[in-house]
């Protein structure tokens, strides 16, 4: 019965090679009002950023030791540094800066298998902040409130990959006044400060570009997902990993012909996404999964399964309009829910997704391009200006506690 319904949808909406429908499908649509326009803002002239000069042990040396840091999903911390060095928003005069940036790569410490280890990050951060607070007057002026840090780790500046431990640690005390640019985004969570900027994870732009297929290829897959359903090593029951959403997808739909889901990662993965109407994004705690980026870039409607998530650049990207949101507890009804979305709603989402500004905002290309994720970060920082007067402390006034936090974090780095 469902299969029949699905073929009905395919024929009326996607028309299998019908030229008129193909044209209609390719037309892009802009959202009137703020959202669509904000994405195209040009940050140049709206803010000035001062880039501190730090010894290379905080950045370049780490990268030399492990060049894989340039390709893993948290590589934005490195590319943002490179981008700022040659950006027209950079100022060499700290007196005129609106924002201060500290070039530090706290995530560039990888296990042999390439997973980032956050254990040294707190000491490294503390060491860098000590250095800049004693060599420049700007840190003490606000204790970091006009400084931003790129901290794209699992739980951002909580610097631990296990949620329980991350919550116990909280945001590194010295970073509590700073603006944090991070992939972690979960409402009402101690690891997300109000005023943080949530960014997409890094996904390799050239590689994705190389797998583009013709835009008028029919989307003959209804629902697509590739990835793990269970974290067999840490969580065999599946209740913790992605909060059970992935396990629920598998158990309910592994035999459903509308669902093209599997743990196998085929060489045609990117092409398949361009042949799919819906791409599942069971994101768990954070938009750090590259799946969200891939779905947007390949025009596959992201089905976001992550209660209380804060999505990347949510004040600029109209996620509600381009994506579909499914509550974690509603995963067992995904099939009914997705098949009952009216064709015209699907078509509108596809037209919005076809808008190049959405795709650009999700990527960190080399070299940078107007409207890309680097520019969205700058736009986010510009929208926070001017700084409230209360961020400037009175001479001698201290707010941060330099001795708070686990004893291990206070050791020199
Ligand atoms: C900033 O404050 C710290 C500690 O409170 C102090 O050690 C440092 O010398 C101050 N920096 C400047 C540039 O005055
Ligand atoms: C700073 O934190 C330490 C450790 O938690 C605490 O013992 C100390 O009282 C705090 N200092 C102030 C001034 O709050």
Automatic annotation (TrEMBL):
Q: Which organism is it from?
A: Populus deltoides (Eastern poplar)
| Location (main, coarse) | Golgi
Query: What GO terms in the biological process aspect are recorded for it?
Result: glucuronoxylan biosynthetic process; plant-type secondary cell wall biogenesis
Entry's InterPro entries? Exostosin (IPR004263), Exostosin_GT47 (IPR040911)
Annotated protein name in UniProt: Exostosin GT47 domain-containing protein
Looking at the Swiss-Prot or TrEMBL record, what is one Pfam family this protein matches?
A: Exostosin_GT47
Work out whether the entry's keyword set contains Transferase.
yes
State a single Gene Ontology molecular function: glycosyltransferase activity
GO cellular component terms, A-Z: Golgi membrane
Q: From the Swiss-Prot or TrEMBL record, state where the protein is found.
A: Golgi apparatus membrane
In what residue span(s) does the Exostosin GT47 domain sit? 46-340
Q: How does it sit in the membrane?
A: Single-pass type II membrane protein
Q: Alphabetically list the UniProt keywords.
A: Glycosyltransferase, Golgi apparatus, Signal, Signal-anchor, Transferase, Transmembrane
